[in-house]
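hey so i finally got around to running the thing on that chain from the lab meeting. sorry it took forever, my laptop kept dying and i had to restart like 3 times. anyway pasting the input first so we r on the same page abt which one it is
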Amino acid sequence: MLTALVLVTGLKARKVSLNDGWQFRKVEEADWRAINLPHTWNTDAYTEKNYHKGKALYRRTLRLNPEDSLRNFHLRFEGVSKAARVMVNGKEAGHHKGGYTAFSIPISEYLSFTTPNLIEVEVDNNRDDIPPRSGDFTFFGGIYRDVWLEDYSPLHFSLNPYATPGIKVTPYLENGLGVIDVEASVTNDAGKREEAILRLDLYSPDEELMASEEKKVKVDNG
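ok and heres what got predicted. didnt touch it at all, straight out
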């Protein structure tokens, strides 16, 4: 069991749920209503033949502390059907196409650390250019999986593509022996070359440490 591959840096990653405190409305509606995530506007799709297809809007506020300005913030969406456009304080931070894949959007450059931040998400489940284009099932619209606020030190494991943790593990057999191939993708947003220690720990199913390896790495900015 591979349980740890970490970058040893001065600032640790944090992950906070943003599932509560949202407001929602369809674009053709005027009034907002309070909701929590996960959410879909088609809960009646199993009883209503002509379920709603179109755009809807989600919004919530986010407060951060001045000392958080040194952090590297991302919004992680586990699933939005079918397409999403994410705005932070009135500016587009990113967009995603695909209702069944997670995505991570960097938002640090749009944030205020002294006043409340407005997070807005425009969701569209009426996109024929995004697979699947047809099927005998409902294309539920909405932010139907969890949303997280994640922040990292400037030197961190890469979050893309598809909001993956930047670590690829491939086990295989070679001459009767088990081999584990590990690839780690690292991003440096520090503005200068950074050094770190990459550590890999391998545990047995009963949590006995079987092997450990450390490696010093130097990562250029960008």
